[in-house]
Amino acid sequence: MDIMIHPSLASANQLELGTALRRLATLAPASVHLDIEDTSFIRNITFGLKTVAQVAAATRIPLSIHLMVANPFPWVEWLKPLNPAWIFVQAEALANPAEILTLIRATGAKAGLAFNPVTLLSCYGYLASFADSIMVMTSEPDGYGQAFNPRLVEKVQQAASLFRQSEIWADGGIDLPSAKLLYQAGAQHLVLGRAIFGSDNGFNNYAANAAKFRGLEHE
Prior knowledge:
By secondary structure, the chain is of the alpha/beta class. The protein contains 8 helices and 8 strands, in the order E-H-E-H-E-H-E-H-E-E-H-E-H-E-H-H. It has an 8-stranded parallel beta sheet.
């Protein structure tokens, strides 16, 4: 299986998003990833609907959207005209996850369920037929720059075992060594933030940074 790279715009230079999108187009990533945050799951606010719509209009790269919000239901309808390829919702925000996963599929997007590190996967196995994609968060706000937690590699393995028909994603502090571990554990889709956009050489090395992750499946 090829590794699918999803650069996360939250880590890009926010004053140069247009430039970032043009450079990303040359990499042909699986998607451009946007986290929509309202402080419910992380002490931050990122992209509003206006910005997401402008990103959608500015690129032909598919979009993957992660709704880190307390009430994701209205967002599913708001995002529908933008034709995102994936929409993820946080499991912890939902009393009846199957309902919104069904709504997401009805928009034409793949329905994704994201899990914080603390959340047990075993309680959600009944949703295997509803979730096209499972995202394991591999870091949390920890006071250390949301560092990758290697103990969560085992959780990725659990996700791959429990949700055999779903795509397995990993998101959070991923660098090249952790990407190898995550891929071996069953994560084919990797959300990459600082690993793509941040480097010692500034914001101009997207291709070089992405190239490090390409071909990991052959190592």
